[in-house]
Structure formats: C-alpha cells, structure tokens
Write a structure and sequence with these properties.
Helix content: 25-40%
Order of helices and strands: EHEEEEHH
Largest sheet: 5 strands, mixed
CATH superfamily: predicted glycosyltransferase like domains
Strand order of the largest sheet: 1-3-4-5-2
CATH class: Mainly Beta
Radius of gyration: 16 Å
Strand content: 15-25%
CATH architecture: Beta Barrel
Distance between the termini: 17 Å
Number of helices: 3
C-alpha cells in the first residue's frame, strides 16, 4: 500500500502501546485507518496486496512484530469502512530501509473464519463489478491469478 500514490490519506495508529505499561484495565485495540479518495486506488491495492491476505504499510514508526490491530479501510461507495483484523508480521526500521525497501511493516490479515474472509471478498467483488463491469473485473482477476 505504499506505491507513492497520494490518493490515500495518512495512516494513523492512535493507541500505540508502551512496552512497560502494566494496566489492569483492557486497552482499546490499536486502530489503523486508510482513507481512499478514489475507488480505483482501492481496487489496485486490493488486487495487488489486500486480496492476497496482507499488505505493506509504509511508516517511519512501525508497530512491534506480533501486534494485533483493527484495520479500517475507508472506501468510496461504501457507507461504512471495511474493517479487517491484522497482525504485524515483519518490520523494516528507518535504519534498515533503503531505496528498494522503505521503512514500514508487513501486515497479515486475520479472519475469525472462512465465512468472514468470504464476506469481505464478496463485498469487494460486488464493488468491483458494479464499478468496472463484469468483463473488466474478470480481466483483473485473471491478471492477479497469473502474477
């Protein structure tokens, strides 16, 4: 999700966890938000990354590996954001980053069940067919399967 496209607003993590904090009360889950300004930008991210079970978020302050969070995708044409659970799988710190690999974190989406995953896929499929038409949608899917 870090293709340099400026069609998304900033990603925010408002509830970063301090490592030494020992609260008795439950914490609010970390929430990452991405707002797509154009539907086509969401489709490109979905076919390239999200639909394959994860994505990369470019950030100078990656969360710790193993951190669970809620990922909210604001998508044009959807009244409510698409909500996915995610877990940080790997990170690239600013010190490790180079021209080929910017700083950030690799995310794996976590679904409670196959039914939950299928519901997200069905929502995105409906959006794509409604927006692009069935022929172009099938071409995008065929391209994704071969890459």
């Amino acid at each position: 999700m870090s293709d340099g496209d400026d069609t998304r607003d900033r990603i925010s993590a408002p509830a970063a966890i301090a490592s030494g904090d020992r609260r008795i009360e439950a914490r609010a889950p970390i929430e990452l938000r991405v707002e797509y300004k154009r539907l086509n930008s969401f489709f490109a991210d979905y076919t390239k990354n999200i639909g394959r079970g994860g994505t990369f978020i470019q950030t100078e302050k990656p969360l710790a590996v193993g951190t669970d969070f809620i990922f909210k995708l604001g998508v044009p044409a959807l009244e409510d954001p698409l909500i996915l659970a995610g877990r940080v799988q790997w990170t690239v710190t600013p010190e490790q980053a180079d021209a080929a690999q910017p700083p950030g974190m690799g995310i794996r989406f976590v679904f409670d069940s196959d039914q939950g995953r299928q519901a997200v896929e069905a929502t995105v499929e409906r959006l794509m067919v409604d927006s692009l038409g069935p022929v172009l949608y099938e071409k995008l899917l065929a391209k994704r399967r071969t890459s």
